[in-house]
């Protein structure tokens, strides 16, 4: 062992080279950090004035508070303490509606960031090149966590600036609003660092991190609905329990976040020193000596590799649909406390506000279902870049067989998950009304052509511009913005028209256009053909 190696392996020497790796990781992650931070902070900046303009009087806020007190609504927003402060605090209303969603997006950002800088680099052998230098075995993990900590602080600071000027709370309320997001980022960075040591590939580490986020949202929702201890099992719940912008505002729940983040980091540093490089603490299961007959084709292999995403999407959409169904059942009571401006946002053109609610929930289900189609396409790109696809492409397989089979797999994932979301919404929300059940399911099927267009566009981007992975996220994010926040932000018509979902006709609140469905289906088919033409012409990229 050389002197340099001996120094690296002793004491603080395991962190040798952290500064150099930190600069390298900051450089290669700068666009990732910029777009994620700009997206979360920019969206918050846009929503702040809209919320302030919509709820200008205490009477309007008090009326809206009455509609937000049901367990179903509290589970999808936050603790009842915020609702009690609506009348005297616009900030409390804003925080109540925003913290769950912005914290969830923050958690996704840090799960992806830490996985990208740790386990994904090992999987692609980038870390192997770095570790051939005199670098400590904990240096890359330490640098990744330092990048995450810096990003969390910057994001929290920008969100604090965005919340400045909201009525209610005290002078420290904007700082606390930013701090709750910093805390969530630190917690999920630490938890993902542990996941990266347990698993041997990036997709599994990401899955562990997102599973932790799902459990966090679930426990927060259950605890908020019943007002019980379950909220304390959730990192997002700890942020909500700060009661920012309310008379009960408090900072100390963030101490729990800090302690958990520190504990997770210590566990990750311990594990990284006790596992083999490139391997996880959980050993991979040994596979069969020979594949099953059903796996002896590229399409079957693609479905096998993406089945985890498909199952996750199916369960997620079913539960999401059922959650929205519970809200739909109380839509009439909810509508009584809405102002004219709020009804305008929810109104999809139908006289029955319950049908307008159903239309909104159907659209949200469709956007989430499309996300799983986008993720399946992303899995195809990953198989290509890490080199595993090279083993498939080396055999007698056409480009349509691999990676072309990722398009039907993505369409299958998006279609099935959307239908299950509609079933969950109809089963719970229809309340035994067969007519409403049928309308919800028809509305769910109406969304499919728009989903197919979005997925086909994402696959075309993968086929023609494989390095521009940001295109698929831009397309999906813009569609989400149009569907979920288009009315709230009053986007211009031309901006809405970019989204295929804007052309569906808002069924069941309004009649849908059969011609529009046919045109969208033709566009999806044309995009698919364009994508396959691109696959035949470009080189595959194997690292």
TrEMBL record:
<feature type="transmembrane region" description="Helical">
    <location>
        <begin position="448"/>
        <end position="466"/>
    </location>
</feature>
<feature type="transmembrane region" description="Helical">
    <location>
        <begin position="406"/>
        <end position="428"/>
    </location>
</feature>
<protein>
    <submittedName>
        <fullName>ABC transporter permease</fullName>
    </submittedName>
</protein>
<feature type="transmembrane region" description="Helical">
    <location>
        <begin position="355"/>
        <end position="378"/>
    </location>
</feature>
<feature type="transmembrane region" description="Helical">
    <location>
        <begin position="139"/>
        <end position="163"/>
    </location>
</feature>
<feature type="transmembrane region" description="Helical">
    <location>
        <begin position="208"/>
        <end position="231"/>
    </location>
</feature>
<feature type="transmembrane region" description="Helical">
    <location>
        <begin position="309"/>
        <end position="327"/>
    </location>
</feature>
<feature type="transmembrane region" description="Helical">
    <location>
        <begin position="251"/>
        <end position="272"/>
    </location>
</feature>
<feature type="transmembrane region" description="Helical">
    <location>
        <begin position="175"/>
        <end position="196"/>
    </location>
</feature>
<keyword id="KW-1133">Transmembrane helix</keyword>
<keyword id="KW-0812">Transmembrane</keyword>
<feature type="transmembrane region" description="Helical">
    <location>
        <begin position="473"/>
        <end position="492"/>
    </location>
</feature>
<feature type="transmembrane region" description="Helical">
    <location>
        <begin position="32"/>
        <end position="52"/>
    </location>
</feature>
<keyword id="KW-0472">Membrane</keyword>
<feature type="transmembrane region" description="Helical">
    <location>
        <begin position="98"/>
        <end position="118"/>
    </location>
</feature>
<feature type="transmembrane region" description="Helical">
    <location>
        <begin position="512"/>
        <end position="535"/>
    </location>
</feature>
């Amino acid at each position: 062992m050389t002197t340099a190696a001996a120094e690296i392996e002793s004491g603080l020497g395991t962190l040798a080279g952290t500064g150099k790796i930190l600069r390298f990781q900051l450089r290669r992650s700068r666009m990732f950090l910029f777009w994620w931070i700009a997206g979360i902070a920019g969206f918050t900046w846009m929503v702040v004035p809209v919320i302030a303009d919509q709820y200008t009087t205490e009477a309007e806020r008090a009326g809206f508070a009455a509609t937000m007190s049901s367990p179903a609504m509290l589970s999808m927003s936050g603790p009842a303490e915020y609702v009690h402060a609506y009348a005297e605090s616009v900030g409390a209303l804003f925080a109540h509606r925003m913290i769950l969603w912005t914290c969830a997006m923050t958690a996704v950002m840090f799960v992806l960031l830490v996985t990208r800088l740790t386990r994904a680099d090992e999987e692609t052998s980038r870390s192997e090149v770095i570790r051939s230098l005199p670098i400590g075995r904990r240096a890359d993990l330490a640098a990744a966590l330092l990048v995450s900590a810096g990003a969390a602080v910057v994001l929290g600071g920008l969100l604090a600036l965005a919340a400045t000027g909201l009525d209610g709370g005290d002078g420290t309320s904007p700082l606390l609003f930013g701090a709750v997001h910093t805390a969530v980022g630190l917690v999920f960075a630490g938890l993902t660092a542990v996941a990266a040591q347990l698993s041997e590939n990036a997709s599994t580490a990401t899955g562990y991190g997102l599973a932790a986020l799902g459990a966090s949202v679930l426990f927060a929702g259950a605890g908020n609905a019943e007002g019980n201890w379950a909220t304390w099992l959730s990192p997002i719940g700890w942020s909500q329990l700060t009661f920012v912008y309310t008379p009960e505002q408090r900072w100390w729940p963030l101490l729990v976040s800090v302690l958990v983040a520190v504990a997770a980091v210590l566990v990750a540093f311990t594990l990284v020193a006790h596992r083999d490089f490139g391997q996880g603490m959980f050993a991979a299961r040994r596979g069969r000596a020979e594949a099953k007959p059903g796996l002896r084709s590229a399409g079957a292999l693609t479905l096998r590799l993406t089945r985890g995403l498909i199952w996750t999407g199916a369960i997620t959409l079913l539960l999401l649909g059922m959650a929205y169904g519970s809200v739909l059942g109380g839509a009439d009571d909810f509508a009584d406390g809405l102002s004219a401006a709020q009804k305008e946002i929810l109104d999809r053109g139908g006289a029955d506000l319950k049908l307008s609610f159903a239309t909104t929930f159907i659209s949200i289900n469709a956007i989430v279902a499309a996300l799983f189609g986008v993720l399946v396409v992303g899995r195809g790109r990953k198989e290509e870049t890490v080199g595993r696809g090279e083993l498939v492409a080396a055999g007698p397989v056409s480009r349509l067989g691999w990676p072309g089979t990722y398009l039907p797999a993505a369409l299958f994932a998006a279609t099935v998950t959307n239908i299950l979301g509609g079933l969950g919404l109809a089963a719970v929300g229809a309340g035994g009304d067969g007519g409403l059940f049928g309308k919800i399911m028809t509305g769910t099927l109406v969304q499919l052509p728009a989903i197919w267009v979005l997925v086909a566009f994402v696959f075309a981007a993968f086929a023609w511009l494989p390095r521009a992975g940001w295109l698929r996220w831009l397309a999906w994010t813009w569609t989400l913005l149009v569907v979920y926040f288009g009315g709230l932000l009053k986007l211009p018509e031309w901006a809405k028209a970019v989204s295929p979902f804007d052309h569906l006709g808002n069924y069941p609140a309004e009649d849908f256009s059969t011609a529009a469905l046919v045109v969208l289906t033709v566009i999806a088919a044309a995009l698919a053909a364009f994508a396959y033409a691109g696959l035949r012409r470009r080189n595959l990229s194997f690292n």
